Amino acid sequence: RVIAASALLLLQQYGHAQTNQSIKDTLPLEHGAHRIGNRTDADMTRWRSQRLGQFIHWGLYAIPGGEWKGKTYNGAAEWIRSWKEMPQQEYDNLYKQFNPVNYRPEEWAQQASDMGAKYMIITTKHHDGFCLWPSKYSKYTVAASPWKKDIIGPMVDAYNKKGIDVYLYFSIIDWNQPDWRAALKTPADAAAYQRFKVFVKNQLTELLQRYPTVKGFWFDGTWDDSWKNDGAFSDELEQYLQRLHPGLIIGSRLRADEKGARHFDSNSRLMGDYEQGWERKLPEKSADVHGNDWEGVMTIPENQWGYNAKWTGHIKSSNELIEMLVKSASLGGNFVINFGPKSDGTFRTEEVQRMQEIGHWMKINSSAIDGGTDAGFAKQDWGYYIRKSGTDSVYMVVCNVPVSGNLRVKLPAQTTLANVTSLEKNIISGTPELIGKNEYFIHLDHKSQDAPFVILLQTSKENRDNSSFEKAKT
Ligand SMILES: C[C@@H]1O/C(=N\OC(=O)Nc2ccccc2)[C@@H](O)[C@H](O)[C@@H]1O
Q1: Closest Cα to atom 18 of ligand 1
Q2: In this predicted model, what pLDDT tens digit does every residue of 86-144 receive, in sequence order?
Q3: Deepest of 92, 154, 279, 300, by most Cβ within 10 A of its Cβ?
Q4: Do the Cβ atoms of 308 and 65 come closer than 8 Å?
Q5: CA distances from 351 to 54, 64, 105, 112, 394 (A)
């Protein structure tokens, strides 16, 4: 039955007769990928056009901010509860201090809009189990804090009003829930975990009912054996959520298959709607993403998601973050920059600065980013090519200006250059110089640049009469 099912699946997916070879190659999986290839529906097409996102990690961990009784925690601030110097009872009682008197969701949404973010991911509940919404399935929520009120609702409304889509981060790990288990060792563990799975399903249902405009879930905390060894539940849960909220977008972190494989099933097929493993790292080349939709999430310091008073190590500049965004779009992926608001609801200066600087760059150059994807051109040292999906427009984003002042452009075979313009003035000097078959130098104006800049190439399929530049040359 299973083999027949997988065979049918492959035939449906590929739509044409498979050689016996490929069906024989794949393990019969009941809880592996149910779709081969990217989603093509309107919700996923919209997700794919929104290349820049904002991640927000906010919760009780913002209160200690990586420090406790004069000592500094060297780990990620949102993990401070796991630090041996932090008595867990004291952490768990921090909810009695949660009172973000300067929380202004409209201002958060405005600054995200000014940055050019098209979607936002908010931690509804991180591993510590504290819920930023008044869940009726847990006592450990904002309702029990001095703030009392729902944090998530006003945030979703404010961001949606700015035209920014909202995704809900949800940690399966829940250190506050007595029924949470990392591993099932005894029948009592199994019974507890059974109750825990009902709790998870109830909270996710509650979130979709309370916030029906959200576009998806960003799952996390799914690496423990208890979850990994229950691929059937993660599969059923995903299908349940899709039925409850058609079009929901869920990344590859939720699922495990029946053999405990995560992100990619035991036939190396991506589970979920996009690859969600690119955390604080990005793919180098197209081959690294196997044609899948994917998303990279990035911290500004090396590894702090929640507010940490003392950032140490390398703090990424706006230009570094812009180059990562450009690289992501050039490889057909989304790029999400993380921010960790303080416990009072304000953002630290360095984060406000980056939102403003990236926003300034996006005001001029966002046409190269929004709806951008892999152009399929040979990578050049000076930077990245981004194709505007479904068009012949290819953007060059220059991050490394060659001392020669010449940008080498090698077009794919049968492609010629129809027009070259820059998004800012005084970038290009003269017309492109043909230096070989489908190869040009674009000469730069010797104006010094302090940020990546963009050149738009209009290409066309080779035909009888050469491109305007060749005509000009002869
Ligand atoms: C976004 C981050 O996600 C996490 N953990 O990340 C991962 O588990 N990363 C991961 C796991 C498997 C493959 C690739 C990355 C959390 O622990 C952390 O506090 C933060 O919320």
Answers
A1: 305
A2: 999 999 999 999 999 999 999 999 999 999 999 999 999 999 999 999 999 999 999 99
A3: 300
A4: yes
A5: 11, 19, 16, 11, 31
Report whether residue 78 contacts ligand 1, using a CB cutoff of 6 Å: yes
CA 360 to chain centre: 21
pLDDT reported for residue 470: 56
Amino acid identity for residue 363 in this structure: K
Q: What is the phi-psi region of residue 399: left when phi exceeds 0, alpha when psi lies from -120 to 50, beta otherwise?
A: alpha
Under a CB-based contact definition with an 8 Å cutoff, are residues 262 and 255 in contact? yes
For the stretch 352-382, pLDDT in tens is: 999 999 999 999 999 999 999 999 999 999 9
Return all residues near 414 (Cβ < 8 A) that are at least 6 apart: 461, 462
Cβ count within 10 A of residue 224: 15
Whole-angstrom distance, CA of residue 91 vs CA of residue 186 = 28
Going by DSSP bridges, is the β-strand pair 249-250/294-298 parallel, antiparallel, or unpaired?
A: unpaired
What residue owns the CA closest to ligand 1's atom 20? 305
Write out the DSSP string of 290-340: TT--EEEEE-SSSS--S--SS--SPPPPHHHHHHHHHHHHHTTEEEEEEE-
Structure ipTM: 0.95
CA dist., res. 422 & res. 410, Å (int): 18
The ligand 1 atom nearest the CA atom of 306: 19
End-to-end CA distance of the chain: 68
Q: Whose CA is nearest to atom 2 of ligand 1?
A: 305
Q: How far apart are CA 467 and CA 438, in angstroms?
A: 10
Residue 428 per-residue DSSP state: B
Q: Which residues are CB-contacts of 331 (< 8 A; sequence separation ≥ 6)?
A: 282, 283, 285, 286, 288, 289, 294, 374
pTM: 0.93
